[in-house]
């Protein structure tokens, strides 16, 4: 594993090492995924985009501000022995952060590059109001890059999330049959995950049948599944705020020769790309390998998306297997999901996710790659 100390204490230490390297006196953090990663507080963040919390971290102090809706949850769910000084002062968060800068004599206060403009301008006004002259540099994806390297605690949570996801697939092989709608299949899939340990869904599940499966991000509809069609399911469980991500395409009744041909091509692409992954590889290199395999088979025009993306607290994290160059380091958790989509006919995608190690790609996904044909 590329990380050292597992858990929130190790993550805070990594942030402080960055601060020392960059010359930051403090950092302000608002993004809820970043806060969940740093605090280790489970069952607190609702990821609504409202951003009701803020952290202010210096070389010696860790301050955490929230409001009355979340204060008790933090008290109950912050890990034992945590370092956070928690408050819910009735004060605007930009002014709160400015006062922390004043009290800690911080003069270089870094912010996330995703910080909303209203907070940024409010922070500048707050610093002026408390008579502090401070520079406010941006951390250019620094925390996202840190989060790309998973520690042992994170890996354990994602393996558990994937175990729920794999169990759901086995259940759906028994449930799917002709005559069901895509919506009915989606409801059963999601209910099973909730009933078997999921705290939530990684994202809105994709269930698409027949020609709808040719749309990579299809929305489940009232379309009725017919015998001899593919059903594509892209879904994942959320467990203790960490996500899984998996796609399987199954045949309902005996598939045509063309369906088997495309499925075999996608399976081969997936497996050859997975074998080529190693710590330190350029993500673009693996993506281009997938494009070459599918393109050489004559179906390059029907594969347009990236091969994979990082997964963690967010369903899309760094690094990526895509058109841009980026290093896929040891400790990354990333998907491999090639697909071929034939408009008006069908689509096939096969997705695992797992850990990048010094020895290669170690998938968390345990469901089979071979085409599953549901007898009917």
Question: Summary?
Answer:
The protein is α+β, with helices and mostly antiparallel strands and 376 residues long. It has 10 helices and 22 strands.
Overview of this structure, please?
It is built from 10 helices and 22 strands. It is of the alpha+beta class and 376 residues long. The chain has a 6-stranded mixed β-sheet, with helices on both faces. β18 and β19 form a beta hairpin. The longest helix is centred in the middle third of the chain and has 24 residues. The protein is elongated. The two termini are 46 Å apart. The model has no long low-confidence stretch (mean pLDDT 96).
Shape: elongated
Termini separation comes to: 46 Å
**Contiguous runs where pLDDT drops below 50 for at least 5 residues:** none
Number of strand segments: 22
Order of the strands making up the biggest sheet: 4-3-2-1-5-6
Major sheet: 6 strands, mixed
Count up the helices. Answer: 10
Helicity level: 25-40%
Taking all Cα atoms into account, the compactness measure Rg is 23 Å
Structural class call reads alpha+beta
Please state roughly what percent of the residues sit in beta strands, choosing from under 5%, 5-15%, 15-25%, 25-35%, 35-45% or over 45%: 15-25%
Oligomer: single chain
Mean pLDDT: 96
What labels describe this entry?
376 residues; alpha+beta; six-stranded mixed beta sheet; four-stranded mixed beta sheet
């Amino acid at each position: 594993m590329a990380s050292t100390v597992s858990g929130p204490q190790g993550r805070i230490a990594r942030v402080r090492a960055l601060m020392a390297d960059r010359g930051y006196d403090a950092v302000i953090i608002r993004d809820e995924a970043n806060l969940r990663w740093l605090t280790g507080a489970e069952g607190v963040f609702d990821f609504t985009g409202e951003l009701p919390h803020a952290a202010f971290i210096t070389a010696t102090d860790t301050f955490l501000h929230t409001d009355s809706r979340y204060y008790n949850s933090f008290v109950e769910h912050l890990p034992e022995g945590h370092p956070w000084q928690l408050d819910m002062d009735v004060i605007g968060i930009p002014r709160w952060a400015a006062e922390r800068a004043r009290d800690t004599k911080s003069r270089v206060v870094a912010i996330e590059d995703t910080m909303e403009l209203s907070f940024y301008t409010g922070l500048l006004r707050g610093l002026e109001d408390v008579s502090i002259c401070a520079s406010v540099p941006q951390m250019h994806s620094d925390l996202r890059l840190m989060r790309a390297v998973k520690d042992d605690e994170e890996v354990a949570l994602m393996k558990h999330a994937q175990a729920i996801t794999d169990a759901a697939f086995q259940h759906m092989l028994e449930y799917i049959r002709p005559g069901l709608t895509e919506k009915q299949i989606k409801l059963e899939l999601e209910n099973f995950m909730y009933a078997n340990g999921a705290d939530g869904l990684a994202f809105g599940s994709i269930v698409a049948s027949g020609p709808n499966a040719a749309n990579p991000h299809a929305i489940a509809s009232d379309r009725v599944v017919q015998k001899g069609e593919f059903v594509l399911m892209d879904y994942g469980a959320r467990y203790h705020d960490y996500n899984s991500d998996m796609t399987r395409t199954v045949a309902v009744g005996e598939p045509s020769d063309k369906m088997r041909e495309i499925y075999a091509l996608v399976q081969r692409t997936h497996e050859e790309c997975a074998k080529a992954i190693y710590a330190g590889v350029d993500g673009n290199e693996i993506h281009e390998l997938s494009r070459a395999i599918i393109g050489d088979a004559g179906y390059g025009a029907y594969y347009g998306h990236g091969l994979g993306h990082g997964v963690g607290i967010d369903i899309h994290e760094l690094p990526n297997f895509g058109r841009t160059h980026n290093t896929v380091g040891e400790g990354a958790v990333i998907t491999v999901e090639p697909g071929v989509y034939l408009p008006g006919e069908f689509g096939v995608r096969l997705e695992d996710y797992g850990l990048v190690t010094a020895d290669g790609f170690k998938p968390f996904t345990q469901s089979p790659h071979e085409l599953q044909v549901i007898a009917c």
